[in-house]
Specification:
CATH superfamily of the largest domain: YefM-like domain
Shape: elongated
Number of domains: 3
CATH topology of the largest domain: YefM-like fold
Structural class: alpha/beta
Distance between the termini: 59 Å
CATH architecture of the largest domain: 3-Layer(aba) Sandwich
Radius of gyration: 28 Å
Largest sheet: 4 strands, mixed
Strand order of the largest sheet: 1-2-3-4
Helix content: 55-70%
């Protein structure tokens, strides 16, 4: 891993290791990134990602706007897909039989709910 700025001391054996920055990505310590911020920006703008560490652990990633936009669009598409799937699932659940079952459950007395629970428990064995 290419390191810029002050070298980071290795973590002691008794502590959990942090998530490692990929070998091909430049890494700066927080103080090194502050000192060489122009270099950090140049590296990120050229399409790379720059990891910034603090106390020997990666804490921040600097990305180009294009990389950030691509990441957020992928998330938006995933959310749109999940939203559509949820809507379809809810539509399938809104059948007259399902509505009647829910109405019966909400209108049931505590005694009727207890009796239904006993029947369900006996079916399970």
């Amino acid at each position: 891993m290419r390191r810029h700025g002050r070298m980071v001391k290795p973590r002691s054996a008794g502590r959990a290791a942090p998530a490692a920055a990929p070998n091909e990505s430049p890494t700066f310590t927080a103080s090194g990134a502050k000192k060489d911020f122009g270099k950090v920006l140049e590296l990120a703008m050229r399409g790379g990602r720059v990891f910034i560490t603090k106390h020997a652990a990666p804490k921040v990633v600097v990305l180009s706007v294009d990389d950030f936009t691509a990441l957020t669009r992928a998330t938006e598409r995933t959310l749109d897909t999940l939203s559509g799937e949820l809507d379809a699932l809810l539509a399938r659940m809104q059948t007259p039989k399902a509505r009647a079952g829910l109405k019966a459950a909400f209108d049931a007395s505590p005694k009727e709910i207890g009796a239904a629970a006993v029947v369900a428990a006996r079916k399970r064995g």
